[in-house]
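Record 1 of the preview.
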Amino acid sequence: MESGFKRHLATFFQQKSPDIKRLSPKDVLNDPPDLIDIRTSSEYQKGHIPGAVSISLFDEAEQKTIGIAYH
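->
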């Protein structure tokens, strides 16, 4: 079974929506955006600060698991 981190990296580099600007780690290091939004893609699509760049740390299922563990 693939580790969660490897799964996350694989999904990070996939284009999820043409409306979301995706950056590679190299892009961020060379020209950092003013604001990075780490929420899930669906949360970002519901609303975000103009100019914010989406770099999701977790997918929907992972975020739900974390939320349950936190509560």
